[in-house]
């Protein structure tokens, strides 16, 4: 057991040493208008230029326990002399950590000097609709957490379950942390698929660009952590790695879009603003949803039970079903 612990601590120190950390971000940048034709009424477009991306600070490593002898210059690869008595699952876990660290380092090297030129909700690489002529609609509900709300809209979810309406749930790490039992129930219900709404609910950028007053990720390393931190947690809890990522505020710059793609995620946008950050009243939610067309992706929220999202959804769905629409998971069709 001592040998297992020593080996694992060594591997962990290597990963941490390689992963590094980003520099402090500058002040909150000004928001430029989203490219999407539908945006929250609270957004105030400006024409501020995109800032240059920043590099990352030197890497830091954990202190090495006195009982652990390590080489002076630890290699990136998993050591070839891993003790034979290390359980296979531990060795595989360590290999996965090292592989992830190597990918992160390669992305930092590739993008740390790149300058973004696009910024918004609907820029190339953000997928906004299902590729189909079928009369199907994908309902997606964000659970943001933190000061953006860690509540649970029980009325909404109970209605979807009762009526057997599939939905894709974009869960943020802060909401997950505040609602572990409910998360487990939702993840275990085949009616829903759990997707990634980020670790700290930030716009995804490489220079700290802000949207709706929320500062974006400040550099390449920060963007990587925003995407992978929550994905890792969801995978650990459910056994399934998310397919889709949606940033906090749904804003991205074009470099961050490339980073997310290189990490293996599709970026889930929308073309129907269902509740404008849970600010719409019942009639506004109803009107928004009933304007959806074949292949629409609807964005609404499930973390504000005190708002009118549930009432609007409950009013709209029977009308949409009567018009011949079905509801599907986001992964049921290709998206573009």
From TrEMBL:
<dbReference type="GO" id="GO:0005975">
    <property type="term" value="P:carbohydrate metabolic process"/>
</dbReference>
<dbReference type="GO" id="GO:0016810">
    <property type="term" value="F:hydrolase activity, acting on carbon-nitrogen (but not peptide) bonds"/>
</dbReference>
<keyword id="KW-0732">Signal</keyword>
<dbReference type="InterPro" id="IPR011330">
    <property type="entry name" value="Glyco_hydro/deAcase_b/a-brl"/>
</dbReference>
<feature type="compositionally biased region" description="Polar residues">
    <location>
        <begin position="37"/>
        <end position="46"/>
    </location>
</feature>
<feature type="region of interest" description="Disordered">
    <location>
        <begin position="34"/>
        <end position="84"/>
    </location>
</feature>
<dbReference type="InterPro" id="IPR050248">
    <property type="entry name" value="Polysacc_deacetylase_ArnD"/>
</dbReference>
<dbReference type="InterPro" id="IPR002509">
    <property type="entry name" value="NODB_dom"/>
</dbReference>
<dbReference type="Pfam" id="PF01522">
    <property type="entry name" value="Polysacc_deac_1"/>
</dbReference>
<feature type="domain" description="NodB homology">
    <location>
        <begin position="135"/>
        <end position="336"/>
    </location>
</feature>
<feature type="compositionally biased region" description="Low complexity">
    <location>
        <begin position="71"/>
        <end position="84"/>
    </location>
</feature>
<protein>
    <submittedName>
        <fullName>Polysaccharide deacetylase family protein</fullName>
    </submittedName>
</protein>
<feature type="signal peptide">
    <location>
        <begin position="1"/>
        <end position="19"/>
    </location>
</feature>
């Amino acid at each position: 057991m001592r040998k297992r612990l020593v080996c694992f601590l060594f591997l962990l120190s290597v990963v941490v040493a390689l992963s590094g950390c980003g520099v402090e971000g500058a002040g909150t940048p000004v928001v430029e208008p989203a490219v999407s034709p539908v945006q929250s009424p609270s957004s105030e477009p400006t024409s501020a230029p995109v800032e240059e991306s920043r590099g990352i600070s030197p890497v830091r490593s954990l202190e090495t326990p006195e009982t652990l002898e390590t080489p002076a210059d630890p290699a990136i690869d998993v050591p070839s002399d891993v003790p034979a008595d290390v359980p296979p699952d531990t060795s595989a876990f360590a290999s996965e950590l090292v592989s992830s660290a190597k990918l992160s380092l390669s992305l930092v090297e590739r993008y740390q000097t790149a300058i973004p030129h696009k910024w918004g909700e609907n820029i190339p690489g953000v997928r906004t609709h299902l590729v189909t002529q079928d009369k199907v609609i994908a309902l997606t509900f964000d659970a943001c957490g933190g000061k953006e709300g860690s509540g649970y809209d029980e009325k909404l979810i109970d209605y979807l379950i009762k009526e057997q309406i599939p939905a894709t749930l974009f869960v943020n790490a802060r909401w997950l942390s505040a609602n572990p039992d409910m998360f487990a129930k939702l993840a275990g219900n085949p009616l829903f698929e759990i997707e990634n709404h980020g670790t700290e609910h930030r716009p995804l950028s490489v220079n700290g660009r802000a949207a709706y007053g929320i500062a974006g990720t400040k550099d390449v390393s920060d963007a990587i952590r925003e995407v992978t931190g929550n994905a890792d947690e969801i995978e650990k809890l459910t056994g399934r790695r998310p397919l889709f990522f949606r940033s906090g505020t749904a804003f991205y710059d074009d470099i961050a879009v490339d980073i997310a793609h290189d990490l293996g995620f599709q970026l889930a946008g929308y073309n129907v603003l269902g509740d404008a950050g849970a600010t719409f009243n019942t009639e506004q939610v109803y009107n928004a949803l009933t304007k959806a067309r074949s292949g629409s992706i609807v964005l609404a929220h499930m973390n504000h039970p005190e708002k009118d999202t549930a009432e609007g959804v409950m009013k709209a769905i029977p009308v949409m079903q009567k018009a011949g629409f079905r509801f599907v998971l986001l992964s049921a069709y290709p998206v573009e």
